[in-house]
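The authors assume throughout that readers already know how a fold can be written as discrete tokens. For illustration, here is how one protein appears when written out as sequence plus structure tokens.
>
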Amino acid sequence: MGQQPNVLTPDQSPQHRLGYMIRELREARSLSMRELASKTFVSHSKVQRWENGDRPPKDRSEVELIDRALSADGFLIELWQEITRGVSEPDHVSDAATHVSDTSLDLATALSKAAASNGEGIFVPRRLDDGTVVLVALDRRALLRAGAGIGAAAIAGIPMPASAMVTEDPFGFARSATESWSGLRLSRPAPEFGVDWHALLPEGRSMLGSQLSLQVHPARIEGSRVIVSVPDQRRAEDFLARPHRALLVGAVDTGGPTRFYALDGRAARAKLTRTGGGCEVAAPAAYELDDLTYGILWAVSGYDDALQADDQALSETRSDLRAYERLSASAVSREAAPGLNPVAHMWLGSDFCARHILRALPDLPTLPAFWTREQRGEEASAWLIFDHKFPYLRETTKALGGTSTRAFCIPEEVVRSSPRYERILLFLAVALMESLGIHAQFTTDPAYEAVEGFVVAPEREAVIANWVRGDGMWHVDVTARPSVVREFTIAARDVDADSITAAPTPAGRLRALAQYLDLPWSWLIERCGQLARHGSSGLIQSRSRLVSAAGIDAACSYVGSLPADR
């Protein structure tokens, strides 16, 4: 049996009051004692002593650790200071509703009453403007889980720490964002150091995820611009001057759901304009946060952060692996670059395969057909973001002297399991190809999922170049082996004959793809056109030299130019 917690009397002892709040906040955040011990770098038994009131935190640094671990926003520090100051206890408030003290009940005593209550509700006194004192009913758990008393305690008129007077989500940003994108995680830093929210963007199958720091401010619409009002200029300047990846978010109250607009921190820093009471920043209304812009933020920050993290090691590894370029065939394991992260492995494989194809392409005897293995937005967005991909598409088009075909296998199950923002990224990658005269073709037959990436001169010769979902960083070859060439020729002809997006024009093929991916055609054209007019660099700026916005901007520009109707 586990040790039973001591019976605490938080209304009688500041040590017990602090211990009780540590326990309640820990349980409210679904942490075990051992998990809290790990977060605060102490033993399990020490956490027990804190919570039992036997031995409070020894010094301010220790209680600050606890306060941060439990997101208490300084409240536990204030309770600990009561112990160090030897604060006299407030008068005990009678449980009877017939008597209430004329003095305001402070927050610590309110929490004491919550602790002593056996029910789910407690009563706290509230002084009205005319001096009348009334009892206000509060939900016990809501008050305790509020941590620093934000919300419920403020409504009750209980004195609050200055740092806690700001509501948790004043613009509804966290609620709106996490409801829209289920993998997104938001947290309020404590202490905040000028940051309203830390946003952890989700990882993918290879991407590691990324973190953004955000400030959120009220904003208004003026024509095609959003004017973000920043009340504290110094706080904003300090926030935007740091080298972290930052977003300035404007919240526009439309009378219905609040609409949010994002601006890259470096772009915002250059646009700060002083006003009488603070400063303002203008951003294009095209930067409204929706599935299009969120997908771009997710992909660019995920790839950019991972590539920047391994920049020097990746450059050195690329030089070391150049010897493979002298070979017509190679299969290189990820163990050849053991210290690199998965995105760096992806970039190396993609870059090597692109150069392998460009070397082999002039020697193919007939006009070839291409086959690519990308199925989801995460993989496909490499065409939009990796610095070598857009130039590679242009060079292959130039080398072939005209149009070509590129086949995809995207089963219905893959579409169903992909979030909308990933499906948009896949659509944009295909649109980029169509803009260069590459006819995209699609099969939904899962039997083709295992086919490697290839370029085939039908019945004659094939170039194998695979880095997507392979066992290693890449597998490349040039072969005239009949069985291999025949397999690739049949696959290419099958998809050409039965493509689900078959149409005589790029617009027709892209419209059919949008329908298959369950994306609204008119909305895509409108939003891509808006974003193309301003470019994506103001929304998010890359930092790695291996990432480029050129593909995104070209794809959006092309989609925005397409007819909205048939």
